[in-house]
Amino acid sequence: MNTQDYISLEEQFGAHNYHPLDVVINKAEGVWVTDVEGRKYLDCLAAYSAVNQGHCHPKIYAAFIEQAKNVTLTSRAFRNDKLSLLYKKLHDVTGYDISLPMNSGAEAVETAIKAARKWGYLKKGIPDGQAEIICAANNFHGRTTTIVSFSTEDAYRNNFGPFTPGFRIVEFGNIAALKDAITKNTAAFLVEPIQGEAGIIIPPVGYLREAARLCKENNVLLILDEIQSGLGRSGKLFAYEYEGIRPDAVIIGKALSGGFYPVSAVLSTKEVLGVFQPGEHGSTFGGNPLAAAVAIAALDVLFDEKLIERSFELGNYFLERLRSIKSSHIVDIRGRGLWIGLELNVSARPYCESLMTEGILCKETHDTVIRFAPPLVITKEEINWALKRIEKVLQS
Ligand SMILES: *Cc1c(COP(=O)(O)O)cnc(C)c1O
């Protein structure tokens, strides 16, 4: 079967909820992927930052296979000998008291919403059914019905209502707007420290620090969605470190498994996550031993190979070199770590298609932004290799 055969099958038998580039990948290692025609590409998306550790990392693979031989799923009706080790690991590397494991990022966001609401009723004394959560415009937190209820993106919402009430939207980066939106019924402010899907939007310096202060002052939980920005992508373990703050809760996913398996978690205090009583929340696969073994290995790789520092250093290098490219189509280049948005004054899709022809896989976000987010194991030489081709495409 060739590329066209696979695409035809997909078009005929699959739902069309994505518009992928026409490349059919059948092999991947580190930063490189190979398609069914034998062509090699540098992956500059890293599965939306789920493969920060590089594709098919041998150490995560070994943990995955080893665990798959023993036990993969017990459900939480029984205990397993890996979940407790993941809890301990997450505590040790992040400093948060406790965590709650789920599978997809969206499930972890839902978990944080439920925890915040219950905290609001039990601890803050918000009248029953009145809890409000503030979110930012142009957010991306996932695709469930509740989560798209506070999306401001038509494509994510249209025809999917009725929506879950209890959310307020404020402009991202605008501290006065946040202040105005807080009421005595506000349980939480849920926000991405850097908006990834919106086009790598970095808020003004001091925004998160002020938001943290406002939240504290008003007994509102600050919950950061670091599903994409976290675990090294931004050049820090968490992007919030750039602002020297400590959110009440952090949501992680994606790179928590290095791409082997859906693993997500909410990290928080005993005061917040402690509100859940047995039976109130759960997931059949959440916290399963295979997921836990994979996540422990994925976290170990992140630290053992110093990928966070690498993201910081090589990200700065990549950003600087991109800024030296002269093209009348470039409007802005911004980023933190190996997470860079290159904004054009024209549609980015044809450029992503040209980059693919040159051997680089990127995906446009928000029509006009090309996101460069390669696995963090990328080398300087590989960045140089990519830069030559990016320059050629941007100047064509
Ligand atoms: C990807 C992402 C999610 C959703 O994660 P899924 O695993 O796709 O459900 C939520 N928030 C942010 C910031 C993300 O990037």
Quick description:
The chain is an alpha/beta fold.
Order of helices and strands: HEEEHHHEHEHHEHEHEEEHHHEEHEEEH
* Structural shape: globular
CATH fold field value of the largest domain: Aspartate Aminotransferase, domain 2
**Ligands (ions, cofactors included):** pyridoxal-5'-phosphate
CATH class of the largest domain: Alpha Beta
Structural class: alpha/beta
How far apart lie the N and C ends? Answer: 33 Å
Q: What Rg is obtained from the alpha carbons, in whole angstroms?
A: 21 Å
Structure annotation, total helices: 14
CATH architecture of the largest domain: 3-Layer(aba) Sandwich
Notes on the protein architecture:
- The chain has two domains: about 5-55 and about 305-395, Aspartate Aminotransferase, domain 1 (Alpha-Beta Complex), CATH 3.90.1150.10; about 60-305, 3-Layer(aba) Sandwich (Aspartate Aminotransferase, domain 2), CATH 3.40.640.
- The model has no long low-confidence stretch (mean pLDDT about 95).
- It contains 14 helices and 15 strands.
- The strands form three sheets. The chain has a seven-stranded mixed beta sheet, sandwiched between helices.
- It is an alpha/beta fold and about 400 residues long.
- The protein binds pyridoxal-5'-phosphate.
- The site of pyridoxal-5'-phosphate has 14 residues, from helix 5.
Describe the SSE topology.
Elements: H1 3-13, E1 25-29, E2 32-35, E3 40-43, H2 46-49, H3 58-70, H4 83-94, E4 98-102, H5 105-124, E5 132-136, H6 145-149, H7 154-157, E6 167-170, H8 175-181, E7 186-191, H9 207-217, E8 221-225, E9 249-252, E10 264-268, H10 270-273, H11 289-304, H12 307-323, E11 330-335, E12 340-344, H13 349-357, E13 360-361, E14 363-365, E15 369-372, H14 380-395
Parallel strand pairs: 3-13, 5-6, 5-7, 7-8, 8-9
Antiparallel strand pairs: 1-2, 2-3, 4-10, 9-10, 11-12, 12-15, 14-15
Helix pairs in contact: 3-11, 4-11, 12-14
The structure holds pyridoxal-5'-phosphate.
Pyridoxal-5'-phosphate (PLP) binds next to helix 5.
